[in-house]
Please model this.
Amino acid sequence: MKILNVDIKKGGYEAGKTMIHTISFAISSGKILGMIGSNGAGKSTTIKGMMGLLPFMEGRSDIEEGVSYSYIPERPVYYDELTLWEHIEFVGSVENIPQAIYKKRGEELLKKYRLIDHAHQFPSTFSKGMQQKGMIVLALLTEPELLIIDEPFIGLDPNATKLMLKSLEEERARGAGILMCTHVLDTAQRVCDEFVVINQGTMLASGTLEEVLKECGTEGGSLYDCIPDEEGEELE
Model:
């Protein structure tokens, strides 16, 4: 079942200055779609466009009615005055999750990501890796049907990376659709079902690994072979 359909004609941070264009893809329940490309290719800008966060965009981004989603940004974002546990309480309240349920889920996730001893501390005192793990906890708390993740492995140590990959598999098995934006191509090739290749703000190829490699003219190769050398202005 398709739960997200994206068709971006063009978009950017100001009218008349197109940063991304001609990008279309869909995400299905129980599938991981990897949005790949080099740094500055336009992946994060595409995510902002599909979430309605670009000041200028022509096109559509439609989430199926009733589908809940969570977003993990590339740079962790917290309220300075709230502890990590207070963030969990805030998310539980906003999402109307019964207290007993969000407390149980929150404690389980904090233990899983080894943050339980830091639950009542301010995230501003955390390392970058701990902040990233905290964002993962908050995103998974709601058991979303669609999970949007921008560069999930930045700042994570090997153990946290393994935990994140295990969580992605669990979410996929639960039936969630996942968009994972990353330039860690060997990991993407191993875990994703489909791909969208972005370069210089436009889509070069999309589909399964075999379809993407064929479209890129790199059959028998790897995702690394699909990424051309970057030239010109960097995007986000």
